[in-house]
Design brief:
Radius of gyration: 18 Å
Number of helices: 7
Order of helices and strands: HEEHEEHEHHHHEE
Distance between the termini: 35 Å
């Protein structure tokens, strides 16, 4: 929980959750998964929609929030759902829309549910445009592995992800932690973002990284263009200065 709290604070760097009125504000988590981020919205909103199409994740959500009157669990898609149009003060989607074939259309679908002046908080995989060449080469090597692993049966994907987490993620993350403790700059050290995360989070992220067939990455320019086409006020667009990149917030016109 402590590690998840820190990760959530990193995602929320572009916004201030205290700006919302907890007695009237409405939020939605698009692609809520197990609800690990939606649950952290509860103190700030009067109603939260947790939208998740997966059967397994929905079972978890319904069990976790069965006694929570603020939460509405929707087993629906981003493109077709029952959230009222222009009703949200905050729409949140963290690490989901880059797995959808038409990310630009998905952003438009989310925008249709946000009221004028409401905020969109989103995390999309980035194109590593701010990283050195060797870092990008390591990524493309790992991406080749993902192409193969993601096409295997789920049980095998999960096992391989656990092995990757144990033999690659964990050693690199803890090495980054040691270097950071020694005062070294680790911003371009592979997997430094996981330096203080527990192993279970490394496993989950390894499975998400290597077990998913469709993975898109976007530059700041491409994200800005998609947001413009979806009717957001680009003068309010704020990209996070801390990882994970690119996390951003923007208001709807």
């Amino acid at each position: 929980d402590e590690a998840l709290d820190k990760q959530f604070l990193a995602y929320c760097a572009p916004i201030n959750l205290d700006q919302f009125n907890p007695s009237s504000a409405v939020a939605a988590d698009f692609g809520a998964g197990s609800g690990r981020w939606a649950v952290r919205l509860l103190p700030y909103f009067s109603l939260i929609y947790a939208l998740e199409p997966s059967d397994g994740a929905n079972q978890v959500l319904n069990t976790k929030f069965k006694n929570e009157p603020k939460m509405r669990i929707l087993q629906e898609t981003i493109g077709v759902n029952s959230i009222p149009p222009e009703s949200l003060d905050l729409a949140m989607s963290l690490g989901v829309l880059h797995h959808i074939p038409d990310t630009g259309l998905a952003i438009k679908d989310v925008a249709s549910k946000i009221k004028s002046g409401g905020i969109f908080l989103c995390y999309l995989y980035y194109k590593l445009e701010n990283k050195p060449l060797y870092y990008r080469c390591l990524f493309w090597t790992s991406n080749s592995l993902r192409w193969v692993i993601s096409r295997l049966p789920y049980a095998l994907r999960k096992l391989i992800a656990q092995v990757i987490a144990a033999l690659i993620y964990l050693p690199l993350a803890r090495t980054a932690k040691l270097f950071s403790s020694a005062g070294k700059n680790v911003s371009n050290f592979p997997l430094h973002h996981y330096a203080n995360m527990p192993f279970v989070m490394l496993q989950n992220d390894a499975l998400d990284r290597f077990g998913t067939r469709l993975e898109q990455r976007f530059s700041k320019k491409e994200i800005t263009e998609m947001l413009a086409h979806a009717g957001f006020d680009l003068s309010t667009l704020k990209f996070s200065a801390v990882e994970p990149f690119w996390t951003f917030s923007v208001k709807k016109l």
